[in-house]
Design brief:
Order of helices and strands of chain B: HHHHHHHHHHHHHHHH
Number of domains of chain A: 1
Helix content of chain B: over 70%
Mean pLDDT of chain A: 86
Structural class of chain B: mainly alpha
CATH architecture of chain A: Orthogonal Bundle
Low-confidence stretches of chain A: none
Order of helices and strands of chain A: HHHHEEEHHHHEHHHH
Number of helices of chain A: 12
Helix content of chain A: over 70%
Number of domains of chain B: 1
Oligomer: heterodimer
Strand content of chain B: under 5%
Radius of gyration of chain A: 19 Å
Shape of chain B: globular
Largest sheet of chain B: none
Structural class of chain A: mainly alpha
CATH topology of chain A: ABC transporter involved in vitamin B12 uptake, BtuC
CATH class of chain A: Mainly Alpha
Mean pLDDT of chain B: 89
Strand content of chain A: under 5%
Radius of gyration of chain B: 21 Å
Strand order of the largest sheet of chain A: 1-4
Shape of chain A: globular
Distance between the termini of chain A: 54 Å
Largest interface: A-B, 46 and 43 residues
Distance between the termini of chain B: 25 Å
Number of strands of chain A: 4
């Protein structure tokens, strides 16, 4: 029983984090058909903001809010630096600029801060554990679950009930048509980047809360996770991203528990092989989104 | 068709000029840079055969280069050194020791076989999903190289490869690869693939089996990457898996994209340009470190400048320096125009 609870909590907390990461990526992809390689760097930005503000003596929550705000700011910056100038050009051009921007941010962190890991301030609650039904669980896992439930609900509400969300979904379905009906394109795109940055910031804090330190390459793993989750779930569907995130967490956690130490090193290779199998079966991903429209 | 011969001729002449030129100057550092340049050329032109013709970005290329480098290493490290260089190697492999040339071929073939198996399902995917999965493939290959200690000595440095790659060999391989890339571009597969790049739906409607065409190009690219990896391995003689990851991927993609992914000329021009820029920036970086203003080491400056250059090129000239015509084509057109004027 304790094992089952442990397993479920592991899957849910990992899956919650994965789902948020994937959601942040798919919001951009769904509307703009841009695979944002600089997404992982938003997580890095959140981490370094925490590190840089750690000496300021601010309460932790203020620091966390600051970190999220910086991630939002850099999300919007991605739009201006990597996306807007090449929006009308080919998909490959956009991919390449976002890849270049990602490299730019990483190396800027390398140059101006340090290649070595930096400690991030965390409240005590992140390192405490509780016992639920005999299973000992770090409290941060429960925080992750709670945060992901709240955020997923908030994003769902935003997308379904608010004018902004409806406009975004309209833009994702048919950008040209949405523009003709008076949806301001630049505003929608900037808000999508801001929302993506917001999710990245929150995930960044939760993710770095697990590791405790931040390095310039910290964004790579979340980026990969988000990539794979979105591919499994269906590149253009928001619910698909969430399903993909939880599924990937289930696969990862199961492998964690079942593989021997020798094989565990290859976990990523196994995960990705499974992904290839899923894609063989459903090249569109599990949940098909709206048909793709033009971007400009 | 005639201008393709001209292109091949000009590009081979450029390669020869680089090789002979640096031999004539006779400074060893230049020799190293020139050899490095030619090896990068092999890799970038290899990537061009897939990316240029299919229009899909592939991140996995460097992974196949690593595969080639390790294959060749396992096959050529002298038997008496294997105990030290690869302590966990399987017994039956310990006695194997073949000539580097054969090993290079084996490296290419193995990379191509692995590519053929893993890429078959992936080639069905459309633009963004295919880019993402190729990125995942790079991570898988890196994970395997990093952990399969028996063959790769794990994350530690593998040493003891015989140094057999020199400037003439690199130049010959680069020239052959350029010719192969041009031939492939003009072959039936290449033409159909380029048609699918321009308009996927129209090409499919005309009967092009797009996943299959892409698959062939991907295998060819992996084969060339494997060869390039072996070439590099026997030049550098000791390396670790982290040599085959994002930094190098960024570099070869920069080279290809700035030069122009759609043309072999672009691949060659981009490689030459970026190699010089890279060496210049590295020099500046170490000069800055030597003067030691400020406390820390200057790292990452080169990449920052290259990234800015890449974004600038994408904004100003999204097709790169040679967006769609090979150099031979440009020259024949220019001459014809002059004739009609006169």
């Amino acid at each position: 029983m304790a094992f089952a609870i442990q397993f479920v909590i592991d899957v849910l907390s990992l899956g919650g984090a994965y789902a948020l990461m994937a959601l942040g990526l798919v919001i951009i992809y769904g509307i703009l058909r841009l695979v944002n390689f600089a997404y992982g760097e938003l997580i890095m930005v959140a981490g370094y903001t925490m590190y840089l503000s750690s000496g300021s003596g601010l309460p932790w929550l203020v620091m966390a809010a600051l970190a999220v705000a910086m991630a939002v700011l850099f999300g919007i910056l991605t739009d201006y630096a990597a996306f807007r100038p090449v929006r009308a050009k080919s998909v490959t051009a956009v991919l390449i600029t976002s890849f270049a921007f990602s490299n730019l941010l990483q190396n800027a962190a390398l140059l101006f801060i340090s290649p070595r890991p930096r400690n991030v301030p965390l409240p005590d609650i992140f390192s405490q554990t509780v016992s639920i039904g005999g299973a000992i669980t770090p409290v941060r896992n429960l925080i992750t679950i709670a945060a992901s439930i709240v955020l997923l609900a908030a994003v769902a509400f935003l997308m379904r009930r608010t004018t902004l969300g409806i406009a975004m979904r309209a833009a994702a379905t048919n950008f040209t048509m949405a523009r003709m009906l008076g949806v301001p394109a630049n505003l929608i795109i900037s808000s999508a980047f801001a929302l993506s940055g917001f999710l990245a910031g929150v995930v960044g804090i939760l993710w770095i809360g697990r590791i405790g330190t931040v390095v310039p390459g910290v964004g790579l793993e979340p980026l990969l996770v988000a990539f794979i989750a979105t591919v499994i779930g269906g590149m253009r569907s928001l619910p698909g991203a969430v399903v993909g995130g939880f599924l990937l967490a289930l696969i990862d956690t199961t492998l964690n528990y079942t593989l021997s130490q020798d094989l565990l090193k290859f976990r990523d290779a196994f995960t990705f092989s499974l992904v290839i199998l899923i894609l063989l079966w459903r090249p569109q991903g599990l949940i098909k989104g709206p048909a793709s429209g033009q971007r400009t | 068709m005639k201008h393709s011969y001209l292109t091949a001729l000009i590009l081979i002449a450029v390669i020869a000029a680089i090789a002979i030129g640096s031999q004539l100057i006779g400074i060893r550092l230049y020799d190293r840079i020139a050899t490095n340049l030619l090896i990068s050329l092999v890799l970038v032109v290899g990537l061009q055969t897939f990316m240029g013709n299919s229009g899909l970005l592939s991140f996995a290329h460097i992974g196949f280069m690593g595969l080639g480098a390790y294959t060749s290493a396992v096959l050529t490290i002298p038997a008496q050194m294997k105990g030290m260089a690869l302590p966990d190697l399987y017994d039956f492999m310990k006695v194997v020791e073949i000539s580097p040339l054969l090993a290079m071929l084996a490296a290419g073939v193995l990379a191509a076989v692995v590519a053929a198996v893993v890429a078959y399902p992936l080639m069905r995917l459309s633009d963004a999903a295919s880019v993402i999965t190729s990125f995942a493939l790079l991570v898988v290959l890196y994970t395997v190289m990093n952990n399969w200690s028996a063959f790769t000595n794990g994350p530690r440095t593998l040493f003891g490869l015989p140094k057999t790659t020199d400037l003439p060999i690199a130049a010959i391989v680069a020239a052959v690869v350029v010719v192969v890339a041009l031939l492939f571009k003009e072959s039936r597969t290449g033409k159909l693939l380029r048609a699918s790049r321009e308009d996927e739906v129209a090409a499919a409607a005309l009967g092009a089996n797009i996943p299959h065409l892409r698959w062939r190009a991907f295998i060819l690219a992996a084969f060339i990457a494997g060869i390039g990896g072996a070439l590099w391995g026997h030049f550098i003689t000791s390396f670790a898996p982290k040599a085959f990851y994002l930094k190098e991927t960024f570099l070869i993609i920069t080279m290809l994209v700035i030069g122009g992914a759609n043309t072999v000329t672009g691949a060659v021009a981009g490689t030459i340009l970026i190699t010089f820029a890279y060496e210049g920036l590295r020099g500046t970086e170490s000069a800055l470190n030597a003067t030691a203003i400020g406390a820390g080491q200057v790292v990452g400056l080169t990449e920052i400048v290259l990234a800015l250059a890449m974004i600038a090129v994408m904004i100003v000239k999204p097709g790169g320096l040679f967006p769609n015509r090979e150099i031979g084509h440009i020259l024949t057109r220019a001459r014809r125009k002059k004739e009609t004027v006169a």
